[in-house]
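Pasting two entries for a bug report.
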Amino acid sequence: MVNIIYTHCNSGAGDILIHHWLKSIKLHIDLTNIEIVVIDFGLTPDQRDTLRDEGVELWPAQADGRTPNIQYREIARYLATRDDVGQVVYSDCGDLIFQADIAPILKDDTAMMKAVVEPEFNVALHGITLGFGDVRPEYLDEIRKTIGDRSTANCGFVVGPAAKIAAIWDTYQKLCHGVDLHGTDQLIINYILRRDGFVELDRIWNYVTFINGQRFYYDRDGFLCNHQGRIPVVHNAGRYNSVRTIKGFGYRCGRIRPRLYTESIRLFYRGLNWLHGIFHNRATTT
């Protein structure tokens, strides 16, 4: 059996994929038993040639919806052509890089989904900032109850056995009537994680910089570190570049925005969550 690390990409992020995401994988991850797959949502011919030269398998796909959502349709189709895949690692590519091998998280609990919980985010904030417009109304209460008030996992980096990753799309189709909104994939995967159970990975395996209250910094060699040292998987998340914590982010490059700027965004989200709690409590007591 082989393992797969995969992502999805179009021409706009293709150069970042090649020069930062793929470069960091090749430098830090032991690929002895791992294949790299990219779902091709419109890469340029030159980008495709470069990726193939680097040993990357491309899976051509039509971008007929928001690609972070429909990529689960495509990975299901791809995995249907393979019966030799053990674990699958999904990773964002435009804002995520590797600084260490991921072998430690592939060794154990191979039958379980694995993800990193983002302490500062939850389903209430998802509704306020991203919305539930893709979800079928009759399933919204079930999703909310299943996830509850617990923090949600950031699904820019998810590990699971091939069968469970392939089944995400079936659940998505059942619960959703659309594929247009940013973040719907994360909502559905969090529903699956809480419904079925999952292994909660240490935060360093998907270290989301957005609204992160921890302190982190670049060392003299250009690697991002926290109090534990060099961070294995760094995710400079954010729907818009203007709110991403690190400007010019990439492999061994970037500049952390001033603390006051990032703290103001974090406090804004905390305020939204606080206000939601007040109005929710009033609604349930009247």
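Entry 2 (this is the one that rendered wrong in the viewer):
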Amino acid sequence: MDADAGTGGAARSPVRPPRPDGTGRRRFSLFVIGDVRIEVRAALDVRFGELTADRLCYGPARALVAGTAVNLARCAVARFRRVSVLAKVGDDEFTPVIRRELRRIGARDRLRVEPGAPNGVTVMVRDRPAGGGPGVRLLVAEQDAPGRRLTESEVRSAAGSIRRADALFLDGYSLLSPVSRAALRAAAGTARAAGTAVAFDLVPHDIDARLPAAAVLPVLSAADVVFAEAPTLARLLGRAVPAGADEVRALARALDGAVAGRPLWLLRFGPTLLERVLAYQREGLSLEYGTGYRDGDVRAGFGDRLAACELYWWLSSR
């Protein structure tokens, strides 16, 4: 297959043109359910392997409102006419900061506040790049964050907005808690009954080490679009991690027998799992394209910009 050609559907890459950071006519409504946290990001001037004792490092560091829901919404507002965010947050000094950030980016605040609970905090540290690579990322996330306690009733209270949306965006972090897992399933069921498209981001990328395939694959079958790194899906299916485009296409065909339904698979692969995508749907689209990611590009946020771009492209082609 040519690098940017396809069969059985659209003949143009969803990201070239435009690049993921481009903008176009804003349309469609998107309802996002996910995690909202305060995140501290820092970059080191050493490799993690060089640290054999306590060390003080000076380097770029900042705190921001982040989490899967905010990160996606921050990118989606450039393309979608309306973006709403539903998440469970805490009740502390960071709560008004989170609300102000949603207003600043132009997203609708559908937050649910847990009285007396602190907001979740995440620390992301990336070490010095080696050989031109991006470096290694260490992500430390507070385990008992409010997002794990988003309830089914809180989701059902937003059912009208979910039904009116063109697409509902969910992610796999909600599967890690039985409470938020029930909320996720309720949201997907509400969307499917109303004809709202369901998009699912298969994160964390090591979800195969945290949950059995039987807890993940049924959720994928309820989705219309699935964003995933190819190695994550391969491990879930008990297959070897794909080493190239041919193996990724074989993985896509294996998904036909492993997952019910006909989701559109957007499988990321390449040296850093950001360079290439295979868009595949059983008895339909098969399209491989480049994302525009290059060595030296900032990794943080690139995947969210790409997902927002791809979802807009898919909705436009329906």
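Dev reply: Rendering is fixed now. As a check, the viewer should reflect this: DSSP finds nine helices and 16 strands in the chain.
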